[in-house]
Amino acid sequence: MVKIYNDKQADLKQLKGKTIAIIGYGIQGRSQAMNLRDSGLKVIVSELKDTENYKIALKDGFKPVDAATAAKDGDIIQILTQDHVQADMYNKFIAAEMKPGKSLVFSHGFNIHFKQIVPPKNVDVWMIAPKGPGALVRQQYEEGKGVPCLVAIYQDASKHALKDALAYAKGIGGTRAGVIETTFKEETETDLFGEQVVLCGGCSELIYAGFETLVNAGYAPEIAYYECLHELKLITDLIYSKGIDGMRRRVSDTAEYGDYSRGPRIINKKTRAEMQKILKEIQTGKFAKEWIEENKKGRPNFNKYRQASAKHPIEAVGKKLRGMMPWME
Fold this sequence. Notes:
By secondary structure, the protein is of the alpha/beta class.
């Protein structure tokens, strides 16, 4: 059984007198920074000057500084930039400021787990990862609620890293919902697997395959779009709120029977074997190495994939049909 922490096991006083530096004022960075500040904690933010996020930070009442200054002045340094830029940023601007007594913090374990960032042994390294987008983290906080979080301790030089991490989680509202204990390894590998096999990779290819099968069989692209993409939201919303069994009990009996009897023919033994192969690529670091090299080379494959995706027929059909549904905006 995993351990779950709540408000009673977290104390904001743990971070009293400490400065929390949020590096990267994107959607997650903005939400965490604002929630921490509203919880009475001292927060500074770092963002590239004159960018849109820099301007947003100013409007929110922060005075953004550069990464080196944030790392120097911060006691708790939370890196919330994209994975592929974190290591370079750390080495250039943060590493020199990692002194005893400081904490290096993440919301995703990629760079620590795959050793792209190797912090000194005399600092704390921990993770608080909200299981929801930044906008939801802020919205739930403002409503007096919270988004569940994961907590992981990688280095505990101070011997109170967990107390600090739980206080941070409380500051962003996470302990109101519950904070689940994990490890950097578990969070990183399961996160990558979920993205590649189900949430993004698997789902996108399933939509493409369904759409193309219907269109190639002579059905109208517009009808194929509705059946294979548009209505997916109805199902995922039900799964999100009621679970898979709850979804099945809320669709038609015809749909439910088709789910049971045909689903395993799509996600079959061959598919599951490929899932195992992808998981192994993640566990061995093969994917991480590939992604790191891709970025070093200027993203040739990434850009090729993105361009091809934008040209897929489903995008033109979807753009037309979404124009008929202004409520989606």
